[in-house]
Write a structure and sequence with these properties.
By secondary structure, the chain is an alpha+beta fold. About 30% of the residues lie in helices and about 25% in strands. Strand 2 and strand 3 form a beta hairpin. Helix 2 packs across helix 3 and helix 2 packs across helix 4.
């Protein structure tokens, strides 16, 4: 299932936070904020924070997000542990470290095996919309397309132009009911469009 997300507030908050964090040497990417949003959304909709191994379904108390990272001979998914509980600055530093070591082939298996759900962002490659393959034994993956200016219905009902992106969720229906997948997408959208909740 896919839906469109308005990014204007998130981009404005990112600019403000990066100005504030500059002295700490921390730089947030949009992806860092989306990792946090997915982590929080999974805690709000715990029915989607599950893995399905064989005939056993496991539910998780925290959200460990596997993040698809391109490396010279393919793809690897380093894990941001406790994405729901960490600050955005902590996620940014973890991703910088994990991404660097992934490209150098220096990740430990425990740093890329596991995870309770995945996110794959191809926005930097200019891809507007795609569907990602679920990463077994996980049951959830979000595919994030490029942000771009699009016609947008504003809060007051008028038509304007906003920065928006398309996010597509893939779910293993053996473990996750479609209605719960839709609730996760709605929770993620709410956090992206009202990003102050990412700081709480």
């Amino acid at each position: 299932m896919f839906e469109h997300h308005g990014l204007d507030k998130l981009l404005a908050l990112r600019t403000e936070l990066n100005t504030a964090l500059e002295k700490d040497g921390v730089k947030l990417s949009v992806n860092d904020m989306l990792i946090k949003a997915l982590g929080k959304a999974l805690i709000r909709v715990p029915e989607c924070n599950v893995t399905f191994a064989g005939d056993e379904m496991i539910r998780y108390e925290r959200a460990d997000i596997s993040v698809a990272v391109s490396i010279p001979n393919g793809l690897i998914t380093p894990i941001v542990q406790d994405a729901n509980g960490r600050s955005l600055g902590s996620i940014a530093m973890a991703m910088k470290d994990l991404g660097q070591r992934a490209k150098e082939g220096k990740l430990q298996p425990s740093e890329y095996q596991g995870g309770t759900a995945s996110i794959s962002n191809m926005g930097m490659m200019g891809i507007k919309q795609f569907t990602a393959v679920i990463n077994p034994p996980q049951s959830t993956i979000l595919a994030v397309g490029a942000g771009e200016k699009r016609p947008w219905v504003m809060a007051d009902g008028t038509l304007g132009v906003a920065q928006a992106m398309t996010v597509t969720g893939s779910f293993d229906h053996r473990a996750i009911d479609g209605a719960d997948g839709a609730r996760l997408m709605a929770a993620f959208r709410e956090l992206v469009e009202n990003p102050l909740a990412l700081l709480a």
